[in-house]
Prior knowledge:
CATH topology of the largest domain: Aspartate Aminotransferase, domain 2
Strand content: 5-15%
Oligomer: single chain
Radius of gyration: 21 Å
Strand order of the largest sheet: 1-9-8-5-4-2-3
Shape: globular
Largest sheet: 7 strands, mixed
Number of strands: 14
Helix content: 40-55%
Number of helices: 10
Number of domains: 2
Structural class: alpha/beta
CATH class of the largest domain: Alpha Beta
Amino acid sequence: MQFTDLKSQYAALKTDIDARIQRVLDHGQYIMGPEVAELEAALAGFTGARHCITVASGTEALLIALMALDLQPGDEVVTTPFTFAATAETIVLAGAKPVFVDIEPDTCNLDASLVEAAIGPRTRAIMPVSLYGQLADMDALNAIAARHGLAVIEDAAQSFGASYQGRRSCALSTFGATSFFPSKPLGCYGDGGALFTDDDRLAQAAREIRVHGQSGRYHHTRVGVGGRMDTLQCAVVLGKLGRFDWELQRRHALGERYARLIDASGAPLQRLAVRADRDCVWAQYTVMVDDRAAVQRALQAAGIPTAVHYPKALHHQPAYAAGQDPAACPHAVRAAQRVLSLPMSADLAEADQDRVVAALAEACRRTAAAAPA
């Protein structure tokens, strides 16, 4: 069983993907070829954002967004400690300081009700993460940002295709930044990402930053990075777009089926909540279990791959722990001890899903029975 079944996806899309790649090989424009603009137009249309700027990775998307905001040393960005390191990493690389706010214990997303108290005179932006494929409460966060004159950057690395109150991820805030890492809901065959905004000035800044700050060839108007997405990777994503709506439907259906199977199993574990005004594209199907190591060992023995997203909150990571209160953000700390991601992709077979839940339920029951009274 594959944790993320990319082989079946490629088999289904082989003709389209191979043709797209061959076209690039034939024209030879490997950097900023015509597929780049074609993909940007397609993704902007899909999300509803005015501008899409493809970039070299999801990390690069976050960094370029922060650079476009012209952060100064000592500025602060409010974010979650329960995420991949790239979220905080880019804030530090941009010269700012991450200010960590705890998560909602049932969704693992940034708790909007705690954000306003964390805003200070140096706060410049709020960066929620649409974790596991579900958006945070973007209306609440945008309202807070508006009151304080802040930008909102959605770290949408895991949520491309998800919806919040009928609107798409990446088109709900100042910037939306996504990743096309191969295992993401929409992935390429290497690194890639995209940045979205409705702001013409910020879009122009982002376009210049991704090509070393150039507004024209060898005319550098700002400090930038080498942040372009390769034409070949754009071609791969274009080859996948025709099937993407079907894949989103499958992810929704499989997520709902996981929930039904887990509930019917009676397994002593916690499912993540999905709010009524949004959906989840399940970049990872993640549950919370007690004695995670024992559960993982049991699943491994049954031939079922698992992963942990993420095992340590960022304010406990050595690179970001300086000046942080280790007792802060208790829900994030607790989640890091309990989260467990199960096999998930649009091509996951229902028979394999049945196997996963049966083995998971048995493992959770055994660990619960073995726990001290």
